[in-house]
Write a structure and sequence with these properties.
two-stranded antiparallel ribbon; eight-stranded mixed sheet; transmembrane; 14 strands; Spore Coat Polysaccharide Biosynthesis Protein SpsA, Chain A; Nucleotide-diphospho-sugar transferase; 384 residues; alpha/beta; membrane
């Protein structure tokens, strides 16, 4: 009976023994794994593009890529006729004092490819890549940077100039200040413009996180009878994006564009001031446009350009799908890329992708089409 009791205890003790042995090996494996992989690398983010299948394969109206080679892209426009020398890009850009204070903060460092950026460095890198893309796509155009006079901003580039405008450039008021700066810039140009100028300069106001990948002079060649152009998308609450605004360079058009933006500023300040950090300008744009009698907002549902008189201003509406296209935050979230994208907008965290795209585009490696590189990006979040 005693022998049976001992054997009984041994049998019932086996599962516990097995569990203890298993736990020992698990702990040893975990300890060895931590020794092999430093803790700093356990949750390390990607510092390079991860390429996967390009979305939109097999769709006739979408860009088809074989690796990074575009198979059906029409290519850059060939009918420039020298017009891009009469197009000036205008953007608002400043360096914040808080960014300068943290310039040596290691926690704010960001690695993109082989380069490490602090907050100021990466902001300047985005600005320079913005200029780079313009100078490749439209080499005779100019760039004007509207900035805070107190900003310690220095840009030494050909055909690039700074235009200081006094105002409120804090993060909470920057979008509001941007509209004010556009209005002041247009007022100044109007004052200095002869009534019948022989040479007309057109203006395209953009965010600094865009890449121009085709000639935009065709907007003014193909559509000569508009004053101001906006980009739209199929979004009920925010159909208009303020990151791209084109203004025809005649005295009448500059005046009408200025008056239009003044109305937007008025609505912005009265109705959407609580959204002054972001989105307020887009909400105000939509209100000004959609509040006009007989305007059919259903036209925003189809990506086809159209023109409409908004008050006394002739407004050309251009689809974001071509003139303000935003890459997905992960491959396959969009149904591919439209064939004739002319402007890529790297909103928010996509700015890392903007820098990486330029690095690939300008490198000696065999990257045949930067747009295929973007389309095949497998990054789920760009973390910039």
């Amino acid at each position: 009976m005693k022998v049976f009791s001992g054997w009984h205890r041994f049998i019932f003790g086996l599962p516990l023994l097995f569990i203890l042995i298993h736990m020992y090996y698990v702990m040893e494996f975990y300890k060895n794994s931590k020794m092999e992989v430093p803790h700093s690398q356990l949750n390390k983010k990607f510092e390079h593009l991860v390429l996967g299948p390009a979305a939109g394969q097999g769709l006739s109206n979408r860009l088809q890529c074989q690796g990074t080679k575009a198979l059906n892209r029409s290519g850059a426009s060939n009918s420039r006729s020298g017009l891009d020398e009469s197009v000036t890009f205008v953007t608002v850009f400043t360096i914040y004092k808080s960014s300068l204070d943290n310039v040596d903060d290691k926690s704010s460092k960001t690695v993109v490819g082989n380069a490490s950026y602090n907050k100021v460095d990466r902001s300047m890198a985005v600005l320079n890549v913005f200029i780079n893309f313009i100078q490749v796509a439209m080499p005779r155009s100019k760039v004007v940077i509207l900035t805070d006079p107190a900003s310690d901003l220095s840009v030494h580039r050909n055909r690039v100039s700074l235009y200081p405008i006094q105002g409120e450039y804090s993060r909470d008021k920057l979008m509001l200040q941007r509209i004010r700066s556009y209005i002041i810039f247009l007022e100044t140009k109007l004052q200095n413009l002869p009534q019948n100028p022989r040479n007309i300069t057109h203006y395209i106001f953009t965010d600094s996180d865009i890449a121009v990948v085709d000639d935009l002079g065709q907007i003014f060649r193909d559509r000569p009878n508009f004053d101001l152009a906006l980009t739209f998308r199929n979004n009920k609450a925010q159909p208009l994006n303020s990151g791209f605004i084109a203004v025809k360079g005649t005295p009448d058009s500059i005046l009408r564009a200025k008056l239009f933006l003044q109305e937007v500023l008025k609505i912005y300040s009265s109705k959407y001031i609580n959204a002054s950090r972001m989105l307020g300008d887009q909400l105000a744009l939509a209100w000004v446009v959609k509040s006009k009698p007989h305007f059919d907002a259903r036209r925003f549902a189809k990506p086809l350009a159209f023109a409409e008189d908004i008050g006394d201003t002739s407004v050309l509406f251009l689809p974001c799908a071509l003139y303000n296209w935003t890459p997905p935050e992960g491959a396959g979230q969009f149904h591919g890329m439209p064939l004739d994208v002319k402007v890529v907008h790297f909103k928010g965290s996509r700015k890392r992708l903007m820098l990486e795209s330029w690095n690939f585009y300008s490198s000696p490696s065999e990257i045949e089409d930067m747009l295929c590189l973007i389309l095949g990006s497998g990054r789920t979040k760009y973390d910039f």
